[in-house]
User: Fold these one by one.
Assistant:
Number 1:
Amino acid sequence: MTKLEIPTMAELAAKGEAPDILFWVGCAGSFDERAQRITRDICKILQHVGLKYAILGTEENCTGDPAKRAGNEFLFQMQATMNIQILDGYEIKNIVTACPHCFNTLKNEYPDLGGHYEVIHHTQLIQQLIDEGKLKAEGGESFKGRRITYHDPCYLGRGNGVYEAPRKALESLDAQLVEMKRCRSNGLCCGAGGGQMFKEPEKGKKDVNIERIEEALETQPEVIAAACPFCMTMLRDGIKIKEKEQEVQVLDIAEITARANGLT
Amino acid sequence: MVSQVIFGILLLAAVAFASYNARKIIRNIRLGRNEQRANQPAKRWRAMLLVAFGQKKMFKRPFAALLHLFVYLGFCIINIEMLEIVIDGLFGTHRAFSGLGAFYGFLIASFEWLALSVLLGCVIFLARRNIVHIKRFFGTEMTPWPRTDANLILIAEILLMAAFLTMNAADHKLQLLGASHYTQAGAFPVSSWLLPLLPDGITPLINIERFSWWFHIIGVLVFLNYLPYSKHLHILLAFPNTYFSNLKPQGYFRNMDSVTNEVKAMLDPSYTPEAVDAPSRFGAKDIQDLTWKNLLEAYTCTECGRCTAVCPANITGKLLSPRKIMMDTRDRMVEMGENTRKNKGFQDDGKSLLDHYISREEIWACTTCNACVEACPVNINPLEIIVELRRYAVMEESQAAASLNAMFGNMENNGAPWKYAQADRANWREG
């Protein structure tokens, strides 16, 4: 694979260029070590299909999602207003996000504050690229016949009705897609949403991610597919606690796609 | 003649009392804040037709949905019969619509089959609650009263249907015996099974027929007036509640315009805020801080517990139960409504929805996953209330877990919820 070129908006603007699409990396994708690998795989996919893209780099700020869900509307709107100024400054029209929370907030909540963009999640982009024949699941690791179960992130699935795109991406690999009992609109949360990622859970019988990982393991998967960096953390923690790290991998749809296309 | 007068008085009293209570309910809902929910009527009619009329979301649990469909269809269609009963009662006629001939026979026959299906549905529902002990009908908020309420409704429906069928059976037998006043009319495919159980004398038959007739109609009028005190109000409110559904994606949380004004003013000192009716506080502490739609939803909730059954917090043993959020909201609203009426304006009673009804532990256990919203067969949104309560706790009281406050601080200072420097945000490129 050729060297990864990841331009920032500032760099493109300095050259007088504009990208086709802005890649909104998100905080997890920027700082969380595990999520950074997903971020790079998304970049590899974008570069592989020849899409002209850019990131905001140090000009990107948290969308404010965790603040809003935790009740801090002030902080959310401060973040949103700053981000909208930057996005509008670069005349951004199209955005792809790595995180369903960024996706939901940018797409649904920024318009109220004057930020209007075409926002898609990376699984939707991957599906489009497969449909257009630009991604073929060739030249890389084979997922043919492997048992994969997909965990629906709440803000992608129930929040925005995106159930098919990630599944299409998996189906294109000829993988054996096995559904959990609670899937699609009945999917069970990983336990991270609504600010839970940043606090201790209230007391109860067990943690939500354990409940979810037990259900995922019932499908006897080789791979648990995720599409959200927070779900990724929760599911991996669950796998570690269940001591299944050797048998079961937790991978993002972007990572699976990058591997299948030999981009890693 | 006497019975016609008695009937007229009963009917009038029942309707008057029901409308008195209906006005109370409307006044209570109006305790809430204003919210625009009337745009896009085409989409709203669609939501109402699919979700309330078509019961689309009920079918996530097919067996319960099927039984519910029996009871629902029976309830709606047998109400056509009510029209005839009222006419007969007021004018002393007997089966006023029997002039419809064969079609009347068809109507009565279908009412009978429906009555049987309602009866069977209710018996199975009772068994599910009291013998099978289905888990979602229990839980902390399902104290004796809500459980009794559910049983009363089912028993009332069983009694009403039994009276209806007994009335038809006695009528049918009287018709067969050629009793005067009992003209040949109707078809009785179900109630004819009861014929052997009935006496053969005309007088006892008339007594049974009249008793059943009165029992049925008085039962219906009592039931009508029971609704305002019961969770069963959903049979009426499901329709407006789905009409005024949220039409945006479930992931969208309401923007607070009052905050937008302050943020704009902070970032641009020359900004003059538009005149909005500023709320007395940010978020919700009590009923008057919620919207009328939240309150309508509280009245619409029939406590089926589908929300709680899918709530990740509840499943894993946390205190949060979305159903309890709705029941608490209703209880507090009724309490505030009474207070407001008695005192000609609300007198502080030292209580509030947050803390006296819904605890902090409950609202902070929510993952905002929308499973409860998705599960509700009548489009109730407990999540919106939870978030409003959080907004109050955070913005008015600064009462959030220390770890959440740390997250807010990080976001404010570094533009990320974790303690990383903004300047390092793109360092992953070198990885």
Note: Chain A touches chain B through 71 residues (CB under 8 Å).
Number 2:
Amino acid sequence: MDERTSAILAKYPRGHRDCLIPILQDIQEFFGYLSEASLVEVGRYLDLPAGKIFGLATFYNQFRFEPAGRYHIRLCHGTSCHVSESARIIRELEKILGIRPGQTSRDGMFSMELVACMGACHLAPLIQVNEVHHTSIKPEDLKDIIDSYIHGEEE
Amino acid sequence: MASKTHISVDKEFLVNEVLRNESVELPPDTERKLKYVRRDKVKVPVVFIGTGSCGLISGAGGTLEEAKKYLSERNIGAEIVETGCTGFCSMEPMVEVQLPGKTRISFRHVTPEKLPFILDGIFNNIVPEEHAIGQYKNKSLEPWKNVAFIEELPYYTLQYRNLMKNWGRINPYSIEEYIASGGYRPYVKIIRNYTHAEVCDIVEKSGLQGRGGGGFLTGKKWKVAHAVIADQRYLLCNADESDPGGFANRAMIESDPHRLIEGILIAAYAVGTSKAWISIRNDYRIAIDRLERAIERARDYGLVGHNVFNSGFNIDIIIRKGPGAFVCGEETAMINSLEGKRGMPRPKPPYPAVSGLFGKPTVVNNVETLSNIPAIFENGPDWFNEIGNESAKGTKILVLSGKIINHGVIEVPLGTKVKDLVFVAGQGIPDNKEFKAVQVGGPSGGFLAGEDIDVPYDFQSLASKGVYMGSGGMVVLDQECCIIDTVKYFMNFIQQESCGKCIPCREGTGRMLEVFENITKRPVDEDRHSTLERFKGVMQLENLAGVIKDTSLCGLGQKAPNTVISSLNYFREEYEEHIFDRKCTAGVCRELRLYYISVDKCTGCTICAQKCPESAIIGTKRHPFFIVEEKCTGCGICYDVCKFNAISVK
């Protein structure tokens, strides 16, 4: 049994099913994703079949089952961004990175996620890379933005 | 902490002299002290910086650092206050300055580079007019010359700021400032003097309707839950806002978290529960942080906890982070999610007010509904009843966004005309473009266009136009937006977010999306028959919409076809154009776009041919090129790379 997972589980003594989502959120917060092993362990702790937990976790958008990239890119796809042509941004980014939303690139550098609305509609379209926001971007800017992260890494 | 310096009152004073004092007017001596706490008057210059999410994304973090540096370098004894959102998003990052004896003045787009210039000016009593938005009216203070009053700007004239009263004015982390602005006094008075039923009566009398969209009378809902005999009841605050284009609840929590908490506390007392839950969207990190800190402070003041102010009332507030599912905005789905199940709605009845969370009576209220409660008790139900029109009382917070000049969060009395919201508060469409439609209420809402934008913004009037108010999002579309594409976007969203329980919603929205994909697909070698097939799909849309509406369990499904129906009402020609002429006038539908190269303008630089991913552009160097229509996918790269504007859309 992984010690770190047990430490998280220990925060929920006499855990019932209603603790399931907070536990999964804590695990994801700590590890960045939900591994198969951790799901099995949570199941054992709460006395629930792992399949049921997997069924629950896949239902919600928050949970991911592979580690996020070193640079996690969140693309805003709210209505306001959509009318400001965010679809083109998404397509362009898919092309540059070679991954689709929800995936992580093979070298583990980048991962992509679509978000419903970031609440900065006056700066649409925008993306968030880790904690940095890039606002009012155009498709042709993306290459430079991505390059800056790749080069930043090399230095 | 900087915000502590101006507070000359302590906890003891606020609890004993302010909260425990139940008279309407506080003694003049107390009031004088509170004036300084809420900064009606200041002793040292104060610089306010808006650090809500929208401000921070616009770069308020840098401005804040710069302001700190500026003041320490020049040894100026001024105070910096981080406020929440001011509601005027398109002006962010916003900075406001208040000098002793002068009115408060507000500046737009204050980047770190501009800040020293603005502060230099204002500290020397010179207003850098080009950066000023306006000043706040205050009779007891001297106004600045040649600066407009904020209340007179078109963005503010329609507004009635009740819920937003403290936005941008107080530090959201400071309970002292909230109490000094009149906060928590109604709550303490209620739990010491009123019965549960009296509280429900007052709220019902005020005519407050649920702001989550249902429009059910809040007081009535509380009464139902209170009447059920049970050993435990729950109050559940729905802050799981995940509408694309709606972020009013987040801004409310970030700017004035204590107002929500006071609302929750009063509601909990009315319902007779000792446990209140807040389910908040997990992405809202800043809002969660502010809420947690606010609850902590309220607990510290003895407002939350065991035997509050010796009234015998016990209350605890628990925050749960919503794991992200649009359907969890529906009350029964949210209850399932809190119980650790998949967020799928349950059949009603039994209503949650009778049997909800863990089978106990549960009142589910939206953030905005609960935030309205304190003011109702502060000013009386009759005051609330007078705001709004015949059918809907009070104010509504809405988010203006899309192709509009003034973006932001505004609060208007219900019944304000949609047209005025767009053209007065929003100031219309930028770049002299033409107004096309306004999308109200997110994915469950609908379009308003043409004459119908004259409709008053309230539950009933909107419903009469087939539009649903929803979360208060309002996205304006101009001539360059394609309605079909926007509807397709919403269908895609609903299709992805449908929980899958009801077949009409799960499969029906999928079929609808299919129809939209069909009519925006590139027509290659198409005969008349297949055109007919595509049209057939559209013919079925209305029928299908009816079935989905009638047979879905929850609001998400029942309202899913709203956008489709309303778009068909207003923009039938646009549908026909997509189907028959295979053309998208707005030029948004990618696969229907046909590019051509103007022979006169093309210099034959070959850049477009090099960049074309489909090798669809051919020609000889230094001679005009042309596009092979069969190969072109309409991606628009050539259009973007051409330096001579030689490429245009047919």
Note: Helices of chain A lie at 3-10, 20-31, 36-46, 50-59, 79-83, 86-97, 142-154.
Number 3:
Amino acid sequence: MSDGYRRFLRPEELSRIGKLEVRARHIVEGFLSGMHRSPYFGQSIEFAQHREYVPGDDTRRIDWKAWSKTDKYYLKLYEEETNLRTTLIVDVSESMQFGSGAMTKYEYGCTIAAALAYLLLRQQDAVSMVSFDDAIRSMVPARSKRNHLHALLATLDADAPKKKTDLHAILRYVAEEKTQKGMVVLISDLFAPRESVFKGLKLLRQRGHDVLVLHVMDDQELDFDYSGTTKFEGMEELGELVCDPRSLREGYLAAVEKFLAELRRFCSRNLVDFQTVRTSEHLDAALRHFMNHRIGMQQSVRN
Amino acid sequence: MGWLLNFSFATSGIIAGGVALVASPIIIHLINRLRYRRVRFAAMEFLLESQQKNRRRVLIEQLLLLLLRILIVLALALLVARLIVGADQLAMFAGVKTHHVVVLDDSASMQDSWEEEVDGQIKRVNGFDKAKSVVSAIANEGSRLPGSQQLTVLLLSRPKQPLFDREDVNEDFLTELKTKLDNQQPTHRTFALEDGLDAARKFVKEDETGIRHVHVVSDFRRGDWLDSQAISDAVLALDKEDASINLVRTIPARHENLAITDVQGEFHLAVAEVPIEVTVKVRNDGEKTAKDVRLSVFVDGQKTPGSESIQAVEPGETESHSFYVWFGTGGMHEFEVRLEGDDFTPDDRRFVAVEVAEKRRVLIVDGDFGQGREVIGADFLKLALVPEDTGFEPLVQSPDFLRKNPLDPFTTIYMVNVGPLERDAVKPLEEYVAEGGGLVWFLGSQLDSAFYTDTLYGVDQVGEKPGLFPVPLKPGRRELQHLAGAQTPPDVKFTKHPIFAGLFEGDAYILAPFVNVWEYVAVDQSRKLVDENGEPALDGDGRPVVWQKDDNQRRDGVTTIATLRNGEPFAFEHGFGEGRIVTFLTTAGPEWNNWTKMPPSYVPTIAETQARVARTDRVPERRLAGEPIPFDLDAALYETEGRYSTPDVDLGTQKLLLSVEQDNAAEGGARLRRTFGVRDETDLLGVYRFTLPRQAGTAEQRWVAVNAPVEEGQLTLATDDDIERRMGQDVDYHLQAAGNFGWIKGGDEGDTDVHRVLLALLVVLLVCEQLLAWRLSFHSQTAGATR
């Protein structure tokens, strides 16, 4: 894949695009235009490949045109059409408002959500959207119409964000709401009680959902390259601390790494796809991860 | 650790600021704590966890970092302020106007030499070479700060004539300094250090601006420092001028030394081809016993065959060694004794100029001569004086000879059985003895006690010295009662006077018992003396003071050298002017005694008497190096231009110009005067030969032997304590060890060790600070690894 298109997907560039819908379209179009044709991608009924006929195969699927040219029997295989239901759960809590670069985590998360929604709707998949902080702030049911995007994006408003409390309750609500199995994409920094997060994700998996966690983290949260005496004022009522950040960096990074390791370990055990996304990374990173995940799903279905 | 308490700063003003700067890291730290930026942060959970875990470590690290930074500032401040540790470290070259006055000791002891490695080779160096190195080093260091350093160099030999007078020290000056220093050599003299200090004070006083250092570059001998109050006074005076005093040793340790301290002998009796006895004294100024000390003898520069040796000389002791030497011809001769194999050479050579006579004339005045009587006493004396070829030429004459002939040619005059003399005979005799001639009295039948007492003794006043005769005499002669028996005491009791040395063997009285005296002249012990007012002198009890037999009570300069059995004084010695007189109260012949019949006793006694009283005023002078040789001649007798030669044979013979001066004291006579050696011409050791032509066409030879002062050979160094005691508590001075040049390089390289340590410490501190700061700070590589 050529990287030329990626210059349009830099957070710095995208942050200039004010309207989320336009931003999403920009990302997706840019992303797609940079891709080569792929046998795994396209409209719902699409030719995939030929296979030599073996006795027992349905003769109706023999490609007679190929027979006329090669005098051999080949079967035409098609991509299987699936009507994927995707639920995008977006964290709009106070901690997501943190950002040291061009975008806050909230903006980045919303952008990812918008891009995914646009991409999915373009494939005529049904997309629903849930935004939450201490509780579910808004929720839009699943639709596959293209004009559904506007309704989806309207849920991402983050006026007066609050502290996350019980992610388990929120995910349980989503699980109960989405009775049909589908894909759940959680876009969050996961700064919530660990047990609560794990319980919620586990519940979704138990209900048969395919879960993808896009863990949005700011560069400073991962690298912590502050210097000089700094007073850190905690979001979500986590207190404050005056310190020389350089002296605490090592311990901080260790704590973050431990947190990430716990998340990865849990997700790995529970077949939850987990990806930490930096807010400084190109926006297509999340999309690519989503695509890979989706293909993985299709392959598993096909096989 | 004493050095920690003993430091100072070259730029002490800076150190105050430096100490203030030490607080800066603390202040910066506190300001940083007060001034912070605010960040709203989401991942507080991890930050708080880190803080909780690392609180103690962070605190220690922060304190450590703070401490390191304080130490860095402190080390920087010390470096900038140029810390000087140790009292022997001086900031000599501080970049401000500085006047260095160097007092350079060029006395003989600075010739003390030793071997050391120079440029990879073993070389012999001496104290003066080292002293010159110190001056060069000071100048070299000063030239690095041109325009600010001045140098004055004073030699102790010429403290009032500086070698360099307030010269600006720069590159050009260094060349001039080297040239002049190369030409300087240590002298053979001894100098008073206080003279140099006083001269230095004058220069210091004249220059009151800027910093003034007085460097005394010397060997600091113990003998100079033990008892010299003058040094203390000079140092104190210098200290009051607010000049820093820097005592620089040049000789690292005491070295062994042997010195010839004296050469004595019967040089005044030297006669051609007659051996004379010479006694050499050798002192060991070292710490080890010197064994088999070899002495070489030179006559007129030629080594005599064989060599003398002293078996051993203990440390601090002086050993005498006697030997005989003879001169083949009459005239002036140079005699030298040289000590072989000693490193300190100035005191290893001792010169004597000797005037060797063809014959020594002796006048014997006998009262019986020319009277038709037998001259018994004179004949015996002649025999005693010339038992063999002793070089003496006795001449027997009557008392009239004294009136009519000059007495100068005679070495000694013997007065034998002389009656009353004419006034015009007494006067030349008095002049002869007063100028250095020797006189010996023997009495006899012609004695006139009244004349001897009133004219020749002639003293009445208490404490006055007698004339030509030592004692008042009673009229007539006395008989000494003869005692028979083996246990009788000897008639004469001789003291251990040099004249009677031949009568003793050690302390044993071997020959004297055989001397019998039958008649003698008694001393008038009842003679009443008068006081200075001419009144009869009275003692404390109001009794008249009479002549006392006890020499110590009498105190008239007369020594009783022999007494009779009955306690009566028998022989005397006393001085008169420059001359010496020996008196025997008996006859020279066998009339009153049997002495002449005892040749083993009589002949040596007469020989020793002759050696003792013979005139010494004609003996060539001996002087110490540097001592001027004055000339004061009668212009009527001498020419105005003489000639001279010094021990430096390369210089050859030179003119000696004498200036004519009218002498107001002398009656009408003009004098020819000159003081030779005012410009150090007499610094060389050896014999200086002056030829003074007379108007009569003859020439007088005046030879002067010049030797090094013996005290310069005492090479024991003053300890630091000796110097401290002499300097006193109130004087601020610095004492530099020999070979230590670190104090000179006070600017950049001085205190080198301390500054290097400081610099190394600073580097270590900076590295530690950087490592710690690096550890405590953010690094992108680590961050990248987290991504």
Note: The longest strand of chain A covers residues 136-143.
Number 4:
Amino acid sequence: MEVLILGFFQWFWNLFGLWDGIWSWFHHVWPLAWTLMCFVAILVPLLVGVAYMPYFERKVIAYMHVRLGPNRVGPAGLLQPVADGLKLLFKEVLVPTKASKMLFILGPIIALAPALVAWVVIPFADGWVVADIDAGVLFLLGITSIGVYGIIISGWASNSKYPFLGAIRASAQMISYEIAMGMALICVLMVSNSLNLSDIVRGQNEGLFAGMGISVLSWNFIPLLPMFIIYLISGVAETNRAPFDVVEGESEIVAGHMVEYTGMAFALFFLAEYANMILVSFLTSIFFLGGWLSPVSFLPDGHHWLAAKVSFLLFCFIWFRATFPRYRYDQIMRLGWKVFIPICFAWILVVGVWMMSPFNIWK
Amino acid sequence: MMEFKTFVFYVLSAIMLVAAMRVITARNPVHAVLFLVLSFFTAAGLWMLLEAEFLAIVLIMVYVGAVMVLFLFVVMMLDIDIERLRHRFWSYLPLGAMIGLLMVAEMALVLSGKYFSTEVLPGQSMPAGYSNTKELGHLLFTEYVYPFELASVILLVGIIAAIMLTLRQRKDSKYQYPLEQLAVKRNDRVRLVKMPSNKEPSAGQGEQSS
């Protein structure tokens, strides 16, 4: 990819006979320019996706309720996200009188930033990754654990009761489910023997069934089925989506940490939530559903498979919201600590024994 | 010209020093905790610069992502009157200064000693394919497996001790038993009573219910 674009530049400037002159100084900045290009190429589609996620969600839920959903702005309501974005942009950002002003503004920024930073280690197809680092999974766990600060800081800085309650609920819930998620990932790391996300995907293309041409049966979600389910549910809890949305449960604490926010400051929380949803869907596809691999060998691998898997998981997120009633808070804590974490421990043991036994399928 | 790495080192060190100073000078305890988070974060950046990416990420994951969140959680709940705490600043100063001097002396001993001086430590950077994480894991589970296991047992004891110290069984508090709730059959909760529907209502009852 990098060679292709560089080759295009060379061809373009050679038309004017300027390439050698330009390259003599440009090769100093080329790595930086290339990285920036990668970021733009990832962030622009991501933010467009984030903008259209609420539209998708409203439409899907509407059809599940036998309604029409947004259909007034543009054809089939397709310009609704643009209208919503413009409305939020032109609204005034209010800061409450007794709020801690700097932290109040910092909160939404910290909530959004980790959701965007994590994308550098996501492989979209074989070799299509900005930073192909060996500690990729650790990096992801570290970066996503920072996101909770956005919620805590904004809840505290608002200097008001509902945001504070929301922040406390959020911190307890997100820390609890991070443990379950990390434990589920330990099993994935054990079987793929790597912390590199690209290697984890490649590892799922090996084995008995992959050799027979049906790699879908070699993906991690079959031998690690309990971990897959736990990771998916913890992902819903980690992004504070229904049925685990007690952080902003509107019938209990109005909108939690977002109560005092207006305009774009509020929109940043909104963007962060949807960016996190998309990120968790990508991670679930990469860790358990074979990433960019095609389910059968006669179809070519590629990023479209990853897109299909992610779309299905995003649909599941919305499906859950339309289906399940909200959990009670103590039941959320019980599910995280007393159900998921013991199951994870047990399955780590099972996988360990399995890998040492003659029936090991991950050689 | 200064090397780029050196420049990054000085920027990170400056941020870290300012953040560390603000931890002890900030008037608001929540601000102090957040500055501590910032200094951890920049310390992780410094370690990353030393090619210790595993340690750097673990520092962020464990301290920034978990420990400091709980810390912040507690500090936010407490009603700390910082002025009252400042009141006895001068009486604590000699003790604090002594501990500080002791730490400076220890650091000087370590850094100037023969084990940790820059001549003794390997300064060369590793080849590109070298995985710090893998090497560390390999050493932990082969050469240092007993100290590693010992440390984990000590941590486990710590966890159990903390739970035992805070666990208070109250007799009057009500618990839910989800397994019992799930195991309930219809007959445990509902009793179907057969009543004839054509019974004549007595005059007095009919008036009361309407």
Note: Chain A touches chain B through 27 residues (CB under 8 Å).
